[in-house]
Design a protein that fits this description.
Largest sheet: 2 strands, antiparallel
Shape: globular
Strand content: 5-15%
Oligomer: single chain
Number of strands: 2
Distance between the termini: 33 Å
Low-confidence stretches: none
Number of helices: 5
Length: 139
């Protein structure tokens, strides 16, 4: 990779690292702090970042958690990633238990709603809040 090239870290990386969901633009990468996922497509990455930030902005006040990495449990980010995509899949009447292509899901939602601000966050946030993360198995 060219040193001047920006690394596009996937905002939904937890769902991809665990291989629970998939994405046509995702590529596994190793960082100093562990495994990661980078995106191969700038436009798709930008769409995902905007969606993730909107999900986080809508959800954190409902959980009464500040947008501060020192105070936010890691599980909250996981709930936003998994629950947000599951809710989006439900909005589009797709099977959220097997999201094979995050990019296609977000692209379909973007085509349907034209603007992320038009998403029904009143329905999305409860799905995120009630989403149950799978516990890690003993290693």
């Amino acid at each position: 990779m060219d040193q001047n090239q920006t690394v596009l870290k996937c905002p939904f990386r937890n769902t991809l690292i665990t291989k629970d969901y998939g994405c046509e633009n995702a590529r596994e990468a190793t960082h100093r702090d562990g495994p990661g996922v980078i995106c191969d497509q700038t436009e798709a990455h930008n769409r995902c970042v905007v969606l993730f930030e909107a999900l986080k902005t809508a959800t954190l006040p409902a959980l009464n958690i500040p947008d501060d990495l020192t105070q936010m449990p890691a599980s909250v980010i996981g709930k936003i990633q998994y629950g947000g995509l599951a809710a989006l899949s439900e909005m589009l009447a797709q099977n959220h238990s097997s999201i094979d292509n995050i990019n296609a899901l977000i692209e379909a939602a973007s085509n349907k709603y034209q603007n992320i601000k038009d998403f029904d966050f009143e329905k999305i946030v409860p799905v995120i809040i009630n989403y149950k993360l799978q516990r890690r198995r003993n290693r």
